[in-house]
Amino acid sequence: MNNVFEFDGFRPVIHESAFVHPNATVTGNVTIGRDVYIGPGAAIRGDWGGIVIADGCNVQENCTIHMFPGVTVVLEEGAHIGHGAVVHGATIGRNSLIGMNAVVMDNAVVGAECIVGALCFVPAEMQIPDRKVVVGNPAKIVKDVSDEMIAWKTEGTRLYQSLPERLRATLKPCEPLREVPADRALQRMSYKTWRQISGTAGDRDQ
């Protein structure tokens, strides 16, 4: 954890079972729970306020979490923050998914088991009830999250919850190979997209 910084007397608290990539940056008043994954390029800035990342969350590559002064950002248990997303001064509910490159603005509250689509813009102060699908710019609630959808989301989050242990065991710097070995194994397909699961094209925004 090369890029973990104390700031203004606040030192981050990171559970021993969490994994923070060496190329992520965690600063100040930040609490990270058990089995959390923080990907490379993530900026977790608890300089002006607090950040609580509860057990089982993942914050993927190039995400930003920040706030206005005095605000606490909360990611509740099992929240899933997709590649490149920004959470600024907001609360993300239990087992919710924030899609790739989505933006959730100040004092917005995303309820439990919601799915916020990729590239969605959730404006400041928006209150999203539990188990809603939200898409667009500005964000619009379009339907309820079905049991099948939340089961699919939860399975994907479990993959991320298993990553910290695997990364601690096998991630290491290396010199690249110059050619592909003849016996190189293939990685197993263990997860499908929602469109593959549902067989429909109507949920392309997730």
Short description:
14% of the residues lie in helices and 31% in strands.
Ordered list of secondary-structure elements with their pairings:
Elements: E1 4-5, E2 13-14, E3 19-20, E4 25-32, E5 37-38, E6 43-53, E7 58-59, E8 64-66, E9 72-75, E10 80-81, E11 86-88, E12 91-92, E13 97-98, E14 103-104, E15 109-110, E16 115-116, E17 121-122, E18 127-128, E19 132-135, E20 140-144, H1 147-170, H2 194-198
Parallel strand pairs: 1-4, 2-4, 3-5, 4-6, 5-7, 6-8, 6-9, 7-10, 8-11, 9-12, 10-13, 11-14, 12-15, 13-16, 14-17, 15-18, 16-19
Antiparallel strand pairs: 19-20
Q: What summary fits the major beta sheet?
A: 12 strands, parallel
Write the CATH homologous superfamily of the domain at 4-144.
Answer: Hexapeptide repeat proteins
Strand content: 25-35%
Radius of gyration computed on alpha carbons: 17 Å
The computed structural class is: alpha/beta
Question: Which bin fits the share of residues in helices?
Answer: 10-25%
- List how many beta strands DSSP finds: 20
Identify low-pLDDT runs: 202-206
Q: Measure the end-to-end span.
A: 32 Å
What's the pLDDT, averaged over the residues? 95
Sum up the overall morphology in one term. Answer: globular
CATH class of the domain at 4-144: Mainly Beta
Q: Remind me, CATH topology of the domain at 4-144?
A: UDP N-Acetylglucosamine Acyltransferase, domain 1
What does this structure look like?
The protein contains 2 helices and 20 strands. With 206 residues, it is α/β, with parallel strands linked by helices. It has a domain at 4-144: Hexapeptide repeat proteins (UDP N-Acetylglucosamine Acyltransferase, domain 1, 3 Solenoid), CATH 2.160.10.10. Strands 1, 2, 4, 6, 8, 9, 11, 12, 14, 15, 17 and 18 form a 12-stranded parallel sheet that branches. An 8-stranded mixed sheet has the order 3-5-7-10-13-16-19-20. A hairpin with a 4-residue loop joins strand 19 (132-135) and strand 20.
